[in-house]
Automatic annotation (TrEMBL):
Function as written in the Swiss-Prot or TrEMBL entry: Catalyzes the oxidation of 3-carboxy-2-hydroxy-4-methylpentanoate (3-isopropylmalate) to 3-carboxy-4-methyl-2-oxopentanoate. The product decarboxylates to 4-methyl-2 oxopentanoate.
Pfam families to which the protein is assigned, alphabetical: Iso_dh
EC numbers: 1.1.1.85
Catalytic activity: (2R,3S)-3-isopropylmalate + NAD(+) = 4-methyl-2-oxopentanoate + CO2 + NADH
Functional pathway: Amino-acid biosynthesis; L-leucine biosynthesis; L-leucine from 3-methyl-2-oxobutanoate: step 3/4
Taxonomic placement: Eukaryota, Viridiplantae, Streptophyta, Embryophyta, Tracheophyta
Keyword Amino-acid biosynthesis: yes
Subunit structure, as described in the record: Homodimer.
Known cofactor(s): Mg(2+); Mn(2+)
Positions of the UniProt region annotated as Disordered: 15-41
Name listed for the protein in its UniProt record: 3-isopropylmalate dehydrogenase
Amino acid sequence: MASISAKPQLFKILGSNPSRSAGARRPASIRCSTSQPPRPRRYRITLLPGDGIGPEVVSVAKDVLSVAGALEGIEFSYSELLMGGAAIDTVGVPLPEETLAKAKESDAVLLGAIGGYKWDGNAKPLKPETGLLQLRAGLGVFANLRPASVLPQLVDSSTLKKEVAEGVDLMVIRELTGGIYFGEPRGFGTNDAGVDIGFNTEVYSALEIDRIARVAFEVARKRRCKLCSVDKANVLEASMLWRKRVNEISSEFPDVQLSHMYVDNAAMQLIRDPRQFDTMVTNNIFGDILSDEASMLTGSIGMLPSASVSGSGPGLFEPIHGSAPDIAGQDKANPLATVLSVAMLLRYGLGEENAARRIEDAVIETLNKGFRTGDIHSSGMVLVGCKRMGEEVLKSVDSQKPVAALG
Ligand SMILES: NC(=O)C1=CN([C@@H]2O[C@H](COP(=O)(O)OP(=O)(O)OC[C@H]3O[C@@H](n4cnc5c(N)ncnc54)[C@H](O)[C@@H]3O)[C@@H](O)[C@H]2O)C=CC1
Ligand SMILES: CC(C)CC(=O)C(=O)O
Ligand SMILES: [Mg+2]
């Protein structure tokens, strides 16, 4: 099925600011302008459930996407494809050619998670994680947006004191297709003394830094105009170039206040005083680590969504967590990170702000009703599993009136 939507360009993708547009609905002039029902918008979604809790959370998120979309006159067609350990077991590689080809043809890609104990000992080309890196590189999605907001409903789930955690609203922009996860040379060998070594290389080109810096400045501009670039420029040459280029690009954004911080300090400051941060930009590995750390400000890694975009072609949307093999298959996973990832898919991938907001509103309503999975549970709340949490979110989406009917 062909999509009738134009692919949003990056400037348009970044033009929407979820934290600033709370409660926003389509303007009345658009809502009531025609007596004919609008033609449904149709999008092709690639689903990559993956491994562990991936299929559990993707199943919930898919249902939420379909229902929220239907309320906004959007139709989806889904192609479910193999990825990660599931693909290794079935066809022998972690990212089958067909999966990447179909993903590229679609309007957006939703990934659950990949990996697990079963494949931990595999050689690098046959690791699920290698497939994930190939997917990100294959789609060219270099800009990974990882928002972390402490919701008032979950402030007591944070391991930090309430007075430290409350009000946190930050966005980590992680460079996703460069740096040490991709750098050459890498491998195993022996040193001059004949001792085994393993090595990787952190490489960044000025072009890679410039493009992620521009995305970060644009995002910061739509938020509180504060950007903190995180690096290790006191030690690493790649970080020295990073800092130089970010300073250079900052001249294009004089309205954005830029600061720099070493990554070790940033890790500490995130716990000491997280509200000092608004938008953070950093390299692949530091962003991976700092966003997991930021997730605990919000109560659980099970709450954090992400969007990976390039400005052309389909975006990749996934929770920031992994396949959680320790709880897989037990209906214990929190599906909200994936549900919020489909909200990001609608907003940043398809430009469907109203449907995105419906989903975010439904998540808030579900939390307001007291439903909690184990990772965010606290006394007095209703403990539910992954499926039930999904059903409750669906009820909240369903209970919303179509936008066309809103006064
Ligand atoms: N994007 C991806 O697909 C990623 C895959 N991985 C892979 O996942 C596997 C497990 O990695 P870990 O380091 O254990 O990280 P993880 O994120 O899978 O789990 C860390 C901890 O958080 C919990 N957790 C994670 N997601 C949760 C959710 N939705 N609800 C409730 N609890 C949740 C887990 O139970 C576990 O205790 C590995 O094979 C790793 O390589 C890790 C990170 C990202
Ligand atoms: C395979 C890893 C790079 C995945 C991960 O930890 C992440 O993207 O957050
Ligand atoms: Mg990670």
